[in-house]
């Protein structure tokens, strides 16, 4: 699934594809916001670790879990 994270005071956003489900990502972010933790950790589909400070979190957009089609549709 595609994940897009907006950082405050930054013109760029973090965009990556993750093997985590939408509910897992939502739980990680909600828990971090409710518990006042300093950062969130997310892992992309290639194993890269993303650590984002919660204080600078602008928004998190979680894409659909559907797979992409390859080929022609008749």
TrEMBL record:
Task: Give the matching InterPro entries.
Answer: DUF3107
> What is this protein called in UniProt?
DUF3107 domain-containing protein
What is the species listed in this Swiss-Prot or TrEMBL entry? Conyzicola lurida
